[in-house]
Write a structure and sequence with these properties.
Helix 5 packs parallel to helix 6 and helix 10 runs parallel beside helix 11. The protein is of the alpha/beta class. A hairpin with a 5-residue loop joins strand 4 and strand 5. It folds into two domains: 59 residues, DNA polymerase, domain 1 (Orthogonal Bundle), CATH 1.10.150; 266 residues, TIM Barrel (Alpha-Beta Barrel), CATH 3.20.20.70. The protein is elongated and about 70 Å long. The strands form three sheets. A ten-stranded mixed β-sheet has the order 3-4-5-6-9-10-11-12-13-14, with helices on one face. The structure holds S-adenosyl-L-homocysteine (SAH) and iron/sulfur cluster. S-adenosyl-L-homocysteine (SAH) binds next to strand 10 and strand 12. The site of S-adenosyl-L-homocysteine has 16 residues, from strand 10 and strand 12.
Length: 344
């Protein structure tokens, strides 16, 4: 028997060509696109406004998706973590976070299987790189969440496994689909990067420019090199130049993410250096207390003390920046930042 066609693997033209062999009315194809992407259909029977003959034909020769939920964990705080399995047997994690007070449903998606950037504090980075994810494999994470929960995702953050700007073309194509077919506004899509400066500029030159979050984690080159190998290639001053370009061109505020590691980058002196680095950047700061992960790096990494977190926050706030401390979401199911290693 011939293998069935997977519809979410097809782009719009391919889907059009495929369906038009059986029904050449454009509106029918749009109906099908709408069922798959907007109404998160998992089968053809529910597509009640599509002609029965066409539905039956499609059922015979195609499936909507070949991505499977391997495991699903629900946290006490409502966070859901999925481990998805792709057709080649590789797995990746995505997380649904509910921010009850605002009614937002945020999907945290992965962009690579593993990550080549090697940050020493990050579980994904320590497990190495396997491959880039395809656009449909990224979009499928959101669709799977929507199919499973019957809820509509309102925001997407590229904060799962992988470095999105290291898989630029596929991530950009995924953003186009998320924006046009899943109808999630470009401001509600956030790309988080460890700071690949030339790619930040390239993104800024694209027609669709998502919100930007930067994993900074250290305000001076020496310290940053100890924990983030990317600093050897694109250093803090090159990064700042790219960030200024983004801010000037878009007018948007960026978020600087800062993992607080006990006694390493959470001291008063470092806070003052960070203030000086951010002086001419339009940004907010998101502090993330370090979550211990297994790491074979030389330096010992510790959780920060509560009082050091509060002092760090106070100092940064005094400089006029808005500071948030990232809530540990789904900590009981290892869904917090840096914990998505695909270890199962
Ligand atoms: N590669 C991108 C996207 C991943 S986002 C990036 O690095 O920005 C994941 C966020 O969690 C990043 O800010 C990352 O630095 C942070 N993170 C990684 N490991 C962590 C850990 N052990 N504890 C707390 N935050 C961590
Ligand atoms: Fe990759 Fe981001 Fe982890 Fe660094 S923090 S290793 S860039 S996923």
């Amino acid at each position: 028997m011939e293998e069935k066609i997977v519809l979410t693997k097809l782009n719009e033209n391919e889907l059009y060509d495929f369906v038009s062999k059986y029904d050449d009315k454009k509106f029918r194809i749009n109906q099908i696109i709408n069922w798959i992407y907007n109404k998160s259909a998992s089968g053809f029977d529910c597509m009640t406004d599509v002609k029965k003959e066409l539905r039956e034909k499609l059922k015979e020769i195609s499936i909507i998706t070949d991505v499977k939920i391997k495991t699903k964990q629900v946290s006490k705080d409502g966070t859901i973590k999925y481990l998805l399995e792709y057709s080649d047997g590789n797995v990746a994690e995505c997380v649904l976070m509910r921010f009850d007070n605002r009614g937002n449903l945020t999907a945290c998606v992965s962009s690579q299987i593993g990550c080549p950037m090697g940050c020493v504090f990050c579980a994904t980075g320590q497990r190495g790189f396997i491959r880039n994810m395809l656009p449909y494999e990224i979009v499928e994470q959101i669709l799977t969440i929507q199919r499973d929960t019957k809820l509509k995702v309102t925001n997407v953050v590229f904060m799962g496994q992988g470095e999105p700007l290291n898989n630029f073309e596929n991530v950009y194509k995924a953003i186009e689909i998320i924006n046009s077919k899943l109808q999630i506004g470009i401001r509600r899509i956030t790309v988080s990067t460890c700071g690949i400066a030339p790619k930040i500029k390239e993104l800024t030159n694209k027609p669709l420019i998502p919100t930007l979050a930067i994993s900074l984690h250290a305000p001076n080159t020496l310290l940053r090199k100890q924990i983030m190998p990317v600093e050897n290639k694109y250093n803090l001053s090159e990064l700042k130049e790219a960030l200024k370009y983004y801010i000037e061109k878009t007018g948007k505020r960026i978020t600087l993410e800062y993992v607080l590691i006990g006694k390493l980058n959470d001291t008063k002196e470092i806070a003052l250096e960070l203030i000086s680095y951010m002086k001419d950047l339009k940004c907010n700061v998101n502090l993330i207390p370090y979550n211990p992960v297994l790491s074979d790096c030389d330096i010992k990494l510790n959780k920060p003390d509560k009082k050091d977190i509060m002092l760090f926050k106070y100092l940064i706030e005094s400089s006029g920046k808005k500071v948030t401390i990232r809530l540990e979401r789904g900590a009981d199911i290892d869904a917090a930042c840096g914990q998505l290693s695909g270890k199962s």
